[in-house]
Amino acid sequence: MLSESKLIKTNQFNKKSYFKFLNSFKKLGYNFISYKQIKKKNNILLRHDVDFSVDLAKKIAIWDHKQGIKSHFFFQYDSPFYNLGTHKNIENLKLIKKLKHSIGFHITIKNFNTIRKDLLIFEKFLKVNGIKIDKIFSIHKIGSKKYNIKIPSYQNFFNFNSLGIYYSDSGGSFRFGNPLNNNEIIINKSSFQLNLHPIWWTSGNKIKKRNKIKNIKKLTTKIFDDELNTYRLL
Ligand SMILES: [Zn+2]
Q1: Which residues, chain by chain, have CB under 5 Å from ion ligand 1?
Q2: What is the pLDDT of residues 96-120, one digit of tens each?
Q3: Ligand 1 centroid to 182 CA: how many Å?
């Protein structure tokens, strides 16, 4: 076991340990590359599903860029927490693209018949605002069925290139085990997908779900507070 593998067992998953964690793969000879350049060996597709905050996604995009990493951000067009159409978020998305990351949609399956049309409309909306979306998508929640979902002309990132190895830290813990304990990774250097949600650790070291949710609440209510403070009331 690599010493870095202990990082994700402790409650110290913050900016510093995030960098350390990513660096441990670099030390093994891995590169974090765009899905357009993926090869069978030594590559990692780093993915971030954005469930709560475009501002935080921008922050992570800057962190990743500073590490020389190309990552993939998936945004919801129907998020209950953020609005992709605000001036600020359009600027955030532009910056993420400028940093050479990829942007796709993080979709919720409500009605299969309308999903492709939804994607085309929102793709167009972003295009007129100067943002070119990549033809990739990931699926919000709904368990194992997500591997089989196909949408014409878009690629499902869950089974991208049949990489076969997938790790995710959903909710701040690695449910499928620790990638730094997998010989297919540390010895064979097989390419794989790493799905990280740094929002669960950007706001401190609190490990309890209750505390994590409290932090997310603080972050999302701040958006409303800032907006409400711009009103001039008599
Ligand atoms: Zn999600």
Answers
A1: 49, 51, 140
A2: 999 999 999 999 988 888 899 999 9
A3: 25
